[in-house]
Amino acid sequence: MSTENRGKTYTVERGATKLRAGQGLGTGLGVVIKHFADAFTKKLDSPEKTSGVFTVQYPEERLPLAEAYRNFPILLYDDASGQELCTSCFQCQRICPPQVIHMAQAKDPATGKAIPAVSAFVIEYDACMSCGLCAEVCPFDAIKMDQEFELSTDYHSGLTVDKTDLNRPISFYEKLAPTFWGEVKDGALKKLQANIKRRPGELGIAPQMLGKVPTNPETAPLELRTTT
Amino acid sequence: MLKTQELQLNIGPQHPSTHGVFRLIATIDGETVIDLKPVFGYLHRNHEQIAEVSTYIQIMPFTDRLDYFNSMANNFGYALAVEKLAGIEVPQRANYIRVLMAELTRILNHAAAIGFMLNDMGAWQTPLAFGMREREKILDLFEMASGARMMCNYFRFGGIWRDLPPEFLPQLQGLMQGLPTFFDEFERLLKQNEILLGRSVDVGILPKEVAASYSVTGPMLRASGIAYDLRRADGYSVYPELDFDIPVGAVGDVYDRFLVRLAEMRESYRILQQVIERLPETTGGHINPAMASMNKQKSLRPPPGDAYGRVESPKGELGFYLVSDGSDTPYRYKVRAPSFINLTPLGDMCRGHTVADVVVILGSIDIVMGEVDR
């Protein structure tokens, strides 16, 4: 193979395996003492440094999180109209490796036909493995990964989270991940506008925004109803 | 005359020196181990069976959880297997980023593995803190690129999840400046330490022939004197374009394994230097355009057939064997886990040593129970 000349094989140097007692220990102890002294005088705050204090006093001090950091999924709704981006297309439910996402599609009360809105949405946070596949697959950019990690609780069933607790305004996510949202913003909002037209009444409005935003007419326009 | 009697001693499954839930049944005569039987399976999570009912992309996050120290290397092996099965090309830039991640993984694994081995020798926490400090910096880089420190889920078929963020390379270059200091210091701290020499020289010798007959791979095999490295032998990804040497040991004892790991960190550093230098000139995006959307990834249906993808993970040869029947889930999925296979000669290595040495020898194998039991 042509790879033969790319590097060689060499035997590691074992050095003197019998030393005068204390010589190697002394050298090692020198390293430890240097770091012990540095721990009082230096701060390891950039990656090229190798000594100094590198721990922070959590929770008073916190390290900044990377923009890409992901913990658990959340659902987004539009700040102004209160309309949820989710259309219950079931893509995230299907791709979820541990199968912890459950949802139900909303139905038009007048016709009984399915409409692009979600009536119930549950994620079992206790079994979620934070892989981020749901956020990646979502064609409407409705499900995104949150960066909140202080979720420990002594109340286990509280970790089965429903739509009310999952909903966040778009502005919340935009602050977390400005570049990520910037990439998809235009497409997501355009799709949302098309979907709002097909949602009658209160359907599709985030529960916490009910009463604060105007609702749609009780029945969706006829020409849109037939296309569903 | 004094009559002696053999004694069966259970070490584990709940024991801090067994690196997880792992049980050793030792038959001892006084302090000397005359027989040793490893018992595992306590952490079995049905990985292979779950994979047979999951789509190809759904398996990717589960591979993170095999050897949770090296999720990037696990992703790499699995992605290679699927790409071979489905015939997907990987662009050059994606390949270089993959190698970058794989080599960072090797450095963090070896730094932690040496630390844990020293823990087992009684150097409680000090060497480990040195290793963990560097590991932490690398995990910060992983978080920046992939969104998670350990369960990265970064690789996709035909490339990677996202290109590196702009702040990644400056931070990596900072890390690269610090790494040689860390290697030198780590070596000064440990290499000639009398206690380490006393505990590791000529302990747990694994001769070449025995190592080969047990299919041992990785730093364990190289410490026994066989220069077998998949990066060279298989030449997957862009490794044939990179210069690096293969360090091997002379004796095959615990001390050689320690030295080989130290040397491999320096070799990984050399590879990283070359990758960083070439990264700006690489062509092709971070993913093959044909596979760029998640829709393509999740509906992947490879043609019927089988494929074996393997990488030199920091622990040895990590292989993924896939059989496809043309549907969206694999018909059969098998993981060749290096930790598991490297663990099998444990009995041979420990025979004739004391119980305290068993702990050190186990530490020198560098196992992760998540990978052993799957």
CATH topology of the largest domain in chain A: Alpha-Beta Plaits
Tertiary shape of chain A = elongated
Strand content of chain B: 5-15%
Distance between the termini of chain A: 60 Å
Strand order of the largest sheet of chain A: 5-2-7
End-to-end span of chain B in angstroms? 50 Å
Compact description:
The complex is a heterodimer of chains A (228) and B (374). With 228 residues, chain A is α+β, with helices and mostly antiparallel strands.
Key traits:
heterodimer, A: 228 residues, alpha+beta, Alpha-Beta Plaits, 2 domains, 3-stranded antiparallel β-sheet, 7 helices, 7 strands, 28% helix, B: 374 residues, 16 helices, 9 strands, globular
How would you describe what is shown here?
- The complex is a heterodimer of chains A (228) and B (374).
- Chain A has 228 residues and is an alpha+beta fold.
- Chain A folds into two domains: 18-62, no CATH class; 73-224, Alpha-Beta Plaits (2-Layer Sandwich).
- Chain A is 28% helix and 15% strand.
- Chain A contains seven helices and seven strands.
- Chain A has helices at residues 23-41, 91-95, 133-137, 163-166, 170-176, 178-196, 222-225, and strands at 9-11, 73-77, 101-107, 114-124, 143-145, 160-162, 167-169.
- Chain A has a three-stranded mixed β-sheet. In chain A, strands 3-4-6 form a three-stranded antiparallel β-sheet.
- In chain A, a hairpin with a 6-residue loop joins strand 3 (101-107) and strand 4 (114-124).
- The longest helix of chain A has 19 residues, at 23-41.
- Chain A is elongated, with a radius of gyration of 27 Å.
- Chain B is of the alpha+beta class.
- Chain B contains 16 helices and nine strands.
- In chain B, strand 4 and strand 5 (159-160) form a beta hairpin.
- In chain B, helix 4 packs antiparallel against helix 15.
- In chain B, 49% of the residues lie in helices and 14% in strands.
- Strand 1 (9-11) of chain A pairs parallel with strand 6 of chain B, so a sheet runs across the interface.
